[in-house]
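INPUT
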Amino acid sequence: MSARRDGAARENAPLPDDVVLRAVDITKTYGVTQALKGVNFEVRRGKVTVLFGENGAGKSTLMKILSGVEKPTSGHLELDGEVIALESTTHAVDRGISIIHQELNLCPNLNVRDSIFLGRELRRRGGAIDYAREGEITREVMARLEEEIAPTTLVSDLRLGQQQVVEIARALATDARILIMDEPTSALSAAEVIVLFKVIRELKAQNVAIVYISHHLEEAIEIADHAVVFRDGTLVATADAADIDLPWVVSKMVGRAAEYDFTGEPREHGDLALSIENVRVPDQDAGGRLAVNDVSLQVRAGEIVCLYGLMGAGRTELLEALAGRQPVAAGRVLLGGQDLRPLSISQRIAAGIGLVPEDRQRDGLVQLMSVGSNMSLASLRSMVRSWFVSRKKESADVGSMTGEVRVKTAGPEALITSLSGGNQQKVVIGKMLLTRPKVLLLDEPTRGIDVGAKGEIFALLFREARRGLAVLYATSEISEALTASHRVVVMSKGRVVREFDPRTTSREEVLAASGEPEPEALHIGAKE
Amino acid sequence: MSDTQAGTQAATGPRALSRRVNVNKLLVEGRALIALAIIIIGFSAMSPHFLEPDNLILMTRHVAMNAILAIGMLLVILNGGIDLSVGSTVGVTGVIAGYLLQGANIPFTDLVAYPSVWVVILISVAVGALVGYVNGLVITRLNVAPFIATLGMLYAARGIALLITNGETFTALRGEEKLGNTGFLSLLAGTPLGIPMPVWLMVVFAVVFSLLLNRTAFGRWLYATGGNERASELSGVPVRRIKVLIYVLAGFCAATVGLLLTADLPAATPRGGELYELNAIAAVVIGGAALSGGRGTIRGTIIGAFVIGFLVDGLVLVGVSVFWQQVIKGAVIVLAVAVDQIQQKLQKRREFKRAAASPPSTPAPGSDPALVGSR
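OUTPUT
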């Protein structure tokens, strides 16, 4: 009732009649982390509203709320001026709101047609699924997306980019009035992006409201009618497309807090720490393909090397192969002259190489355990004194590392899940540092953490580098690659394509090398 | 509930770093303790014999065997696995002990061996560990799900027990002075200081395995693998070796129970230990362990074993029909776990409320949110 009255009160302000969906004072908290801090947001009919913001700024959380995946902690949504509460995604789809998720949410064991209609199957009289009709719609949507994917192809037989096309097709098949696209192009080729943009323009002409999120800023600016910028869970700026350009977006996105620049760090590198020669790693999902193809790379002690590349470039596979998670099919991996290939993960950690994984929740943390137990997990062997883990040694090690990596915690006994993303990541990094590594591998070390913690994590890595640690990290954020590394190695489609000195390289050069679609290419596609 | 902030956020499980009593842990085990208290108070009100020392000792003797089995089961469940074969392992190891005691034919000869009692015990325990080792290998090397692998072993081990005895029961367990194989019964069915041997062994197992779980790297690794196997593996935890070892230990516990059961009856029957695995799982679950792994304690498991044991014996004592006993036992198991789930949900809701109520941490631009309040 009170929410409704709020809505009425707002009507005093002139309501632009093209607003279909409005989020009012939305907040969302996960445990102690505040993902959204009172956001007001509008979606307009026949327009593309683009959301900008760094990882963890709150964009994806807001999209999850708009599409019924999550419920807001406080605040409400208005659809056509009417207060609604979305109970589920199906509920949202019924109301005409569809989402293309950032993560692929497909069941690999289903075929394309069944994936597209999962949860809202078309029925014939009597209740049987109308496969013929479903197949027809699937073919139509695929034709629209200019993809030659048969409706009965198994999702697991598709490459990543095609799977993303299926996600897009799923949203298109709902005839949504509001279409939310959360990083729809992360796995698409340049040609596929051009087709998607053509489809978006068609949808606009049909009065569909589109919300668009992308890390590819140039691409997003190109398609935008309205721009909205998020930072740290707050909406910090809105503007019409005519008034924005890349510098404006970047300055609003990062604010002042993110301005870290480590390009001036000393470059007195020591001996060769890690040497990778002609390494090949098979693709775990698609048999026969190589995720990493003939990669050679060298990292010296005290050096921080950034692996830049798009999703699917093979960065994660390379790092996991180095850590021992995935097998190396061919080539040599030498850690200070020692061949790593026959070693298990624990033997590699003992030899001095460890990985801070990309997916913190899935691969980095034991959620049931405390901060201290998580931090000591990889180095417990060194704490054993006559059969038992020495409590004295453990709490001393954990205590000093907590200080070194600056974890903000109530104490070593606090549950790991009570920490913010940035502090959780510091625990994972601290865990690997406690093993006294010579080489530290990090996969997207700043994914999903706030701006301040990002700078801190890099400060920490550069401090360890000055002490002789060799660091190899992967990122898909161009600003990170150019400000926080001694050397940028660009990967594309499993190969190392270029190397750059971040001091003398522009964003455009790196983007071009990584195979991102050029903004010009999008223009050409649009005019067709 | 707690007076300090650290207390309210303290981790569950025994691997917290300090010795301080953990509030959440008490809550989880609390419900098993409450159930036990209700059972004791209820039955002692219904029957004056319930609390008599003789009855308590008898009941604890029954509890002890299930508790030892449940300790092994706890290790497996902490890892996120399950061992359905322990009941059959009890049977096969008991039968092997009986077979050896009454004289074992040495194959391809006419000779009969009469190994001494200690050798008998050693061989039986080794067989139990071997059964677990096979389970562990099938699970880790052949990637068979624990449920399936141990279900297969449940049948196979029972079959072997039947093959050894040809379906019969060995009763000549006393041994003979001149053969030097006496003492099995007096050792395992004895009552040193008036306390039955199974109870002594339960105490020893509880202490040893508590130390193992709470103080050794193995224990920490076991909790970690159950909590998140992928993260543990990337942290260098020897995930496979741990998995094999816990099934070996579960088999070892089962063999111990096999020996105790044989001495207790006193007879080695191929049907010994049937359905024991279910009682063991029930004890572990009532004791607060999560079947998904990573959560559970020895103390909780022992309390769970007491709940099951006292409940069953109490129902017999007050004369509830055998059929109703089954219904009540089933209801108690489900109820205990349901209460646990509700409790966890409430606790989570409390945490969320607290988080929502806390003032938003909006740092000034340029300041460092992660540094606020760090030491």
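end of record. Residues 269-352+437-523 of chain A form a domain with the Rossmann fold fold (CATH 3.40.50.300).
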